[in-house]
Every structure is written in C-alpha cells, then in structure tokens.
Amino acid sequence: MTPSGWKILSGEEKLILKRAIERKEERVRNDRGARRPTAEAALPELTPLHQQLYDRLRQLRKQLADQREVPPYVIAGDRTLHELAAYLPHDKGELLSIHGIGKQKADYYGPLFLKEIIRFEAGYGPLEKLNTPATGMSAPPVTTRTYDAIDVDDLGETVLETGELFAEGLGPTEIAEQRGLAISTIEGHLAKLIMAREIDSLDRLVPPEKVAEIRRAFEEVNEPFLRTVLEHLGEDRFTFFEIRAVRAFDETRTES
C-alpha cells in the first residue's frame, strides 16, 4: 500500500473522488445555467373594467385574509385573481378551471368571489371573457350554469334604469337606442333583472313558442354549454340572449 493509502486508512487524509466532484460541479452548472420551462400560459391583458374588477377582488381577498389573520396569498394568489377577473366564472364548475382553485377553496371562498363578480357585472353590465394572447385560446365558455338569484340591492343604478324603461313598455332595442348603449349591454341588464326576479314573464323577450323549443333543447343536448344549445337550435332562428334568458328565468324560479 502506498504512503497516501496508509494516511487515508488512518484518518489523516480524506478520500476525495474526482468523478463525484465533477458530477456535482456539472449539476450546479446546469441548475444555474438552465431554467425549467414553465407550464403557465401568459395571462391576458386586462381592460380598464376588468382591472377594476381585479382591484375589487384584491380588496375582498384582503378582507378575508384580515378576518382569518393569514397572509393574502393563503386566500388566493395574484394569478388566481387575474384569471378570475379575465375569465369571469359564474359557477363552481367554471371556478375549478381557474389557476390555484381546488375543490376546498371553491367550496370555502368560491361563493364570495362569485358573488363579487356578479355584483360587479350587475353594476357595469356583462363583461366579455378575455382570450389568452399566448395561445389564442378562449377562456372557458359560458356554461348552462345554475343561475343564482340576485338581490335587488345588488343591482347597480344602470341596470335598474334599464328595468324602469322595460317596465314602461320599451323593448331591448328601444332601450339601447334611448340610452345610447350597445344592445348586448342592455341584454345583460335584462338577464340580471330576470335573475333578481324583477321581470316576471318572458313574453316580451322571447316568444312563447321559442321558449318551449329552448326548454326541449336543454333536455335533448347533453353538453353543459349555452353555445352548444344555440348551435343545436340554429343561430339563424335563435339568439344567445334568448337561450340565456330562458335558462336564467327557469333556474332562478326553481330554487327552494
């Protein structure tokens, strides 16, 4: 045995393996020099109104965090709030498609976030779900969700003004012209009024024969998307608002 070998056996020197050192140095270089690809897609840019909703959701998150004496990120991360403001979920199924929301958070905090989104849209009119620029993919489509009834107190002044004009006998197109708003905005207001049970009949919004046909279509189509029901019925004969109005009317009047 060589003198160096005796020193190692006696503990005077340590055995250092060159290959182990080289492998360790290589791992360090790889960790420092290479970034792992992220699975997160780029977030859509928020419009001014979507940004206002995002700020409202941040305020709600802070209130919840203060009440529970936990950091805000425990309630929801910034990315989660961004997706909530961009994709506008309205039910638990859509909520579960949001980054950072699992079943437990959907059950515990979901109703509070959903109520805030609905309250915001009641005041400003329905917002458009934003697309994801990085992929060109749309946010989850509007589903045949169970529409929750809205309290009249949660309706904004602009929605109530539309309701007053509708009560006076004006139709959606006439209201849009008089108020200088898009017909889609007025239709959104009317949908909220239906959900608040301020409109007690669909007769002036959807012809009775269409109402019956729409209800049959919901029974026939086994997919949870309003758009699918519209395509089944034919976009040349029905409008998205007619589908939405009938569904909202029926479901907010079958609640126990």
Précis, in short:
This protein has helices spanning 3-9, 18-33, 48-68, 72-75, 78-87, 92-95, 103-108, 110-124, 157-167, 172-179, 183-195, 208-220, 226-233, 240-251.
Labels describing this entry:
single chain; 256 residues; mainly alpha; DNA polymerase, domain 1; Arc Repressor Mutant, subunit A; 14 helices; 58% helix; globular
Describe this entry's structure for a reader.
- The protein has 256 residues and is an all-alpha fold.
- Among the domains are: 48-124, Orthogonal Bundle (DNA polymerase, domain 1); 152-251, Arc Repressor Mutant, subunit A.
- It is built from 14 helices and no strands.
- It has helices at residues 3-9, 18-33, 48-68, 72-75, 78-87, 92-95, 103-108, 110-124, 157-167, 172-179, 183-195, 208-220, 226-233, 240-251.
- α3 packs across α5 (78-87), α3 runs antiparallel to α8 (110-124) and α12 (208-220) crosses α14 (240-251).
- The protein starts with a helix and ends in a 5-residue tail after the last helix.
- 27% of the residues are buried.
Give the secondary structure arrangement, pairings included:
Layout: H1 3-9, H2 18-33, H3 48-68, H4 72-75, H5 78-87, H6 92-95, H7 103-108, H8 110-124, H9 157-167, H10 172-179, H11 183-195, H12 208-220, H13 226-233, H14 240-251
Helix pairs in contact: 3-5, 3-8, 9-11, 10-11, 11-14, 12-14
